[in-house]
Amino acid sequence: MVYILTFMPDMERWPTGRLLSTAARLVEHAWNEKLRGMDLTHAGVIVMEVLAVKGPTTQSTLAQIVRVQAQTMGKTLSRLEAHGHVSRARSMSDRRSQVVSLTEAGEHTLGLATQLEREVLEPVPVDTAKLRRELQALVRELATNQSSAVANEIVAMDSGLASGEASK
Asked: Do both 128 and 91 map to the same domain?
């Protein structure tokens, strides 16, 4: 991290967007390092969060929600399934599709992953609960003030996970 700060101009002059994106990348990188020890990826945690909130869901619906190609979702699910975090079964209504469920082991692992995310920010001298509230307000306000369908869709998708994030 010192390397990053050494070669960057004075942060006092950075636009807010640059501060936000740099902070997000650093947090995500630190979290991914911790997840690696659990044989998880950030993408896998996102899938498990969706399943925890929505319940059993088809693979294609998961791909749409997470905004990835079906093939990418298949790879993520294969890894999660190999570690016992999810199970897949043929859909009773459409035998061509698979319904994905979060296993008990997956629920436990998701709880651990959530704790790891909190640990990333523990050493930072910032009120992280207040930071979360401020960021949530920022996202909601920006989405409300933009008529962009993409902005509204991003917030709507993430709001579907909000009940699962309340415990974070």
From this structure: no
